[in-house]
Amino acid sequence: MSEERFSNTNHTSFDSERSLKEFLRWRFTRKEPEAVQIETSNQWKQLKEESKNYAVWIGHSTYLLNNGDLTILTDPVFSKRASPFSLAGPKRLIAPAISLEELPRIDVVTVSHNHYDHLDIVSLKALYKLNPNTLFLVAKGDKDLLIKSGINNVTEFLWWEDFELKNTVFTFTPAQHWSARGLKDRNKSLWGGWFMQSSELTVYHAGDTGYSNDFKETRAKLGSPDFAMIPIGGYNPRWFMSYHHVKPSESIQIALDLRVTRSVGMHWGTFILTDEDILEPAELIVKELKKLNLADDFFITPKPGELLSLSLN
Predict the structure, then answer these.
(1) Angle at 103 between CA 100 and CA 169, to 5 degrees
(2) Checking CA distances to 246, which of 5, 150, 272, 299 falls within 20 to 30 Å?
(3) What residues does each domain of the chain span?
(4) Rg (CA), the chain
């Protein structure tokens, strides 16, 4: 890993000294929400080998996608904990809606950044073992981690760099966040979202982010997506989380900034990472849609395992 350290497009960074003080303050004052399970679905079992143009939320920020051209898996986390340790760290509230063994053949894996709830090396190694032809697209600075774990077919990206496979162009886009897997690698790798554009369908995965002008810039450079996956959880307390995690009203604002046709939530209901009640993000999305007089289906929070059609017809 290089000694270069990355910052956000507004030239800010989540520095180690400030974040450690705030983290300790939060940890000593926080009250964890009650561990409840969100409702899941088995609709994904209707998928056939020839199925196209669909999305399934597997949990947290993991979506199984088919855009009519490729089958894509975003931020694959199938482990029981979002942690470097098997016996400590945030534990799953719900199992992955689809197990690793039940997945279809995956053409491309995208990873938004290197936090343990987004880059799970155990899951990536298992995916590579199941299908050695899968391509892994990661942020600049994360390639070596995968290569050292025996995963080949890895390409890393700076913001706005792109990669074309078959008829789909993948572009790595800015988000307001940070990176680290240990105590000494803060911001030594990049973070962002993935804009996936084919001739028939444009899909966008926002990664993990605070609110910023990055989404207006993404629309200006790349156009408006047809379907967007946007984080809605991990936002309380605001004095600590607002810099790098959007609250539900900001999630909807991202969708408006992108001028996206349809949006779905992610990054909630799978792990207890922050202080808001487990069910609150989805409830606040509904309230905000009503407040803004937006259609119910403009931004939805699907059940894990629910089968969503991406067909534009």
Answers:
(1) 110
(2) 5
(3) 53-309
(4) 18
Name the burial class of residue 97, with classes exposed (0-12), middle (13-18) and buried (19+) by CB atoms within 10 angstroms of its CB: buried
* C-alpha dist (Å) from residue 273 to 30, 53, 160, 233, 237: 11, 31, 30, 9, 11
Q: How large is the average pLDDT for residues 106-124?
A: 98
Residue 139 forms beta bridges with which residues? 157
Higher pLDDT, 17 or 35: 35
Written out in words, the top-level CATH class of the domain with range 53-309 is alpha beta
For the stretch 45-84, what's the b/e string if a residue is b when 16 or more beta carbons lie within 10 angstroms of its beta carbon? eebeeeebbbbbbbbbbbbbbbbbbbbbbbbbbbbebbbe
- d(C-alpha 88, C-alpha 83), whole Å: 7
- The token duo for 102 is 């039940």
- Give residue-wise pLDDT tens across range 280-300: 999 999 999 999 999 999 999
Q: Which two tokens stand for residue 55?
A: 């999305």
Q: How far is CA 86 from CA 44, 116, 119, 192, 212, in A?
A: 28, 12, 15, 27, 35
pLDDT tens digits for range 186-238: 999 999 999 999 999 999 999 999 999 999 999 999 999 999 999 999 999 99
Report the chain's mean pLDDT, rounded to a whole number. Answer: 95
Q: Which residues pair with 289 in a beta bridge?
A: none
Provide the token pair at 182.
């240990």
Buried b (16+ CB within 10 A) or exposed e, 230-265: bbbbbbbeeebbebbbbbbbbbbbbbebbebebbbb
